[in-house]
Amino acid sequence: MFLENTVNHKEQFGWIEVICGSMFSGKTEELIRRLKRAQFAKQKVEIFKPSVDIRYNEEMVVSHDANEIRSTPVPAAANIPILADGCEVVGIDEAQFFDDEIVRVCNDLANKGIRVIVAGLDMDFKGNPFGPMPNLMATAEYVTKVHAICTRTGNLAQYSYRKSQSDALVLLGETEEYEPLSRAAYYKAMRRDKAQNTGLNLTEDSDLTPKDTDA
After folding, report:
1. Which of 11, 94, 179, 204 is catalytic?
2. Is 170 annotated as a binding-site member?
3. CB atoms within 10 A of CB 33
4. Residues 51 and 116 reside in one and the same domain
5. Would you say 23 is a known binding-site residue?
6. CA distances, 156 to each of 26, 58, 89, 147, 152 (Å)
7. Does residue 172 have a known ligand-binding role?
8. Has 94 been annotated as catalytic?
């Protein structure tokens, strides 16, 4: 649960909200929903995203279902404080692509009385914590973890499985590159990929064992 429109006449303060999850889990959709509510309330809102993210539009934050809101692309987190001057609410999308400076930037903004709403992937395609997201989640007042639906089991999905063979940490893509998987489906897929890379013959229904899930 997070607070909105909190007023303290004796002390000005802000806070940080983090929306995290896998790909196709609705992170950006939830970010846009909260920001549009703030705009409707006549609050001064600025939205930022990393300039590397140009999948849908260079200047718009766009969710997978085409909901959108105008944003300012920035090359680094250090650009945000200057552009956010005078704002009441700051939104940041795809925070995992920013440098570690984004943690200090978000906390500085919150300390100045600004509501900061951040969305990003909590794990990379290998299932490891992604960039500055763990530190943002640790320092945030409110963390919302959203889930996709596993394309193979129909259960809740929290992993972003990369279907291509690229090993690059940052690889922009959509359904042709990624699919959301549950824990069991993800580790079965990773085990199968590892077996294929080492020349082993592994069936789809083979049981998981700890030694097969090593990174």
Report:
1. 94
2. yes
3. 14
4. yes
5. yes
6. 13, 31, 31, 6, 10
7. yes
8. yes
CATH of the domain at 76: 3.40.50.300
* Side chain identity at residue 153, one-letter code: T
Residues (pLDDT < 50) of the chain are: 1, 56-57, 60, 62-64, 66, 204, 207-215
Burial code (b: 16+ CB inside 10 Å, e: under 16) for 153-187 equals eeebbbbbbbeeeeeeeeeeeeeebbbbbbbebbb
Domain containing residue 92:
1-146
Task: Record the pTM.
Answer: 0.80
Query: Is 95 annotated to bind ligand?
Result: yes
**Any known ligand binding at 22?**
yes
Does residue 140 sit in helix, strand or coil? coil
- Domain count of the fold of the chain: 2
- Say whether both 96 and 182 belong to one domain: no
15 with 74, same domain: the answer is yes
Task: Provide the pLDDT for residue 170.
Answer: 59
Tell me phi and psi for residue 193, to 5 degrees.
-60, -40
Same-domain pairing of 120 and 164: no
**Token reading at 3:** 């607070």
